[in-house]
Amino acid sequence: MALEFSRMKLLVSACLALAAIAYSALDPEVSKQASAELEALRAELAAARTALAKAPQRKSGAQTEGYVRGNDGRIQYPRAFDLVGNTPLIDLTALCPEAAPGVRILGKAEFLNPGFSHKDRIMRNILTKAEEEGRLAKGMTVVCASSVLGIVSCGTHPHSTSCCCPLNACAVSPGNTGASCAMLCSMRGYACVIITSSKCSKEKMDSIRAYGATLIIAEPGQNYMQIETDMAKANPSWFSVNQYDNLDNPEAHFKTTGPEIYAQTHGTVSHFVMAGSTGGTISGVGGFLKQRNPNVKVLLADPVGSVFTNYFRTGELGVGRKFLVEGVGKENIPGCLNISVVDDVIPVSDEDAFKMCYKLAHSEGVFVGGSAGLNVHAAVEVAKSLKGPATVVTLLCDLGVKYLSKIYSDEWLEKNGLVGVGDADNAAAGTRATSGPSLAGPAP
Q1: Which of 15, 127, 204, 249 is the most exposed place for a label (fewest CB within 10 A)?
Q2: CA-based diameter of the chain, in Å?
Q3: Distances from the Cα of 328 to the Cαs of 36, 304, 305, in angstroms?
Q4: Who's near 300: CB < 8 A, 6+ residues apart?
């Protein structure tokens, strides 16, 4: 650093000397003095160059002048997996014109991750830790079930991760973990097998295949998590992701998402609203925020029909029923869910979740999936109830383009009894209030 400063100082002095020479055409005595000074500066610059050449190279990854240099001194640019996380917060306060002064709603734009969802975070952590601990190595195959969440309709199999009932009333995951797994495996050189169901949208199936993964479609009634377990047991060189019980899942959010939210809000976050599927996000983020500030309220947004609401209120699972919002809710309690960090549960209907998706698109230009709509609807309800200054943060989990054939399809909405959900007048109503203050300025 000192050598570089000296070199800069010498260059500035040389420029001044050259300017003096140009000016001195009118005065021979000034010209003579400036020329002598320039010769001395040339000698000093030569010495500085020699010293810099002998100086130790920066360590690989050292941050300088806003970019990173490697051992060879060349600028290094990030690969896609380096871009996971550090997503921005978006001010969504305009969606709640009833909010009291000083109450803000912020959505963390997880759809800006390279795989277009927050699941990139858990897959990066799961794979990295498995590599570091020797459980995953080159030449191995990664298998991940990312499919039916299994909201059963009759109670016959309350602890199963799939529905084998005749009514087949199941909720379906958006397959975001599968897509993230396929993406990261493609970059790290692993073969990848993703297990999903026929209810997964065509867009998501095609994206998983596009990353080069093998896609297995589970038959109706098959326990897709058991398929993953059985495959890993039958093939010693296969690594099972086990996203519902793998504690590296919530750890990813404890280490990244939580600290990011706390820093981006300058520590003013007062409420965190998040739906649960594996439970990793709400457990990891909620755990971190409560560690920093025990007064932060952690609220579980839950689709009507999921068992989380009844479990939180009564300690009993109860019986789940069909709902349409993908990637959230459950019919059992995953190992990754730490219910002790949850302060309350906010049930949200399919209709309210999807209406919010259209409100976000029509009035905020934010194009997201159903779980994000569910999260934001719950966040708005929380904001309405607050009387003083507060910062309500939620996650915008994934990109709406994954749901063009479902949420954003009039035909699909009509088929599922949701006619009118996407009407422009309905979606934009009551969302034109002035947005709250930006967090871009000084900390409060």
Answers
A1: 15
A2: 104
A3: 76, 11, 11
A4: 274, 275, 276, 282, 308, 312, 342, 344, 345, 346
Q: What angle do CA 338, 341, 346 make, to 5 degrees?
A: 100
Closest CA to 143 of 224, 253, 248: 224
Radius of gyration of the chain (CA): 28
φ/ψ (deg, to 5) at 80: -60, -40
Lowest mean per-residue pLDDT among 143-157, 326-340, 412-426: 143-157
| Cα separation, 131 vs 108, whole angstroms | 29
Pair type for strands 344-348 and 297-303: parallel
Beta strands per DSSP E along 154-228: 191-197, 214-218
Side chain identity at residue 265, one-letter code:
T
- Please choose, from the candidates 159, 327, 160, the residue with its C-alpha nearest in 3D space to the C-alpha of residue 227: 160
pLDDT (tens digit per residue) in 412-436: 999 999 998 988 655 555 444 444 4
Nearest alpha-carbon partner for 196 in 156, 227, 232, 159: 227
| Residues 318 and 347: beta-carbon distance below 8 Å | no
pTM value is 0.77
Structure token digits, residue 345: 């549960």
Question: What would the two tokens of residue 185 be?
Answer: 């495996």
Is 364's pLDDT higher than 60? yes
